[in-house]
Amino acid sequence: MTDADNTAMDEGTVGYLLEMGALKRGKRSGWWIAGVKDPETIAEHSWRTAVIGSVLAMMEGADPARVALLCTFHDTQETRVGDIPWIGRRYLTAANNEAVTADQVADAHPKVAAGIQKIIEEYENGESLEVLVAHDADRLECTIQGLEYLQQGYPAAQEWVDSTRAKLKTPSAQALAKAALTMSIAEWQRTYLQ
Fold this sequence. Notes:
66% helix, metal-binding, mainly alpha, 0% strand, 11 helices, Hypothetical protein af1432
């Protein structure tokens, strides 16, 4: 491999990393339907999903690092297709996440491209405990975020709380969602920050 080839791969990999920065600015658009004026970003959602995934993995006996990795990359395609809310999916046909990811990493270092594509393929099509936990982490994060928006005065967020909570599959995610229903942000602050 020539120096020019290495430079091109390095630039392609950095291009991917720069593209991921857009996730820090892209808003989770489904919350606008609930009336939330300034919803969380995709990156904020993905970060807490990874933390929740790690915790759920510990509780369920799955590999916490693997689950965190799956959760970290689960919405990276939204730099190209945006965050399409569930209602919008009824009217749009978008490329699958595997195809979007292939385009995103096309110019990256081959090991990086193969690694990221493998993560997305596993998240989208795998059946392991880690994949189940990662999907539950995504739903539990949405449930918790919805509860926070409810506490901030957005009553339409209740639909997201109810619909995502109903889709939880693991006993640990169900238990944490149930516990989250009983704890407000103010209560958490009083209990744990004193």
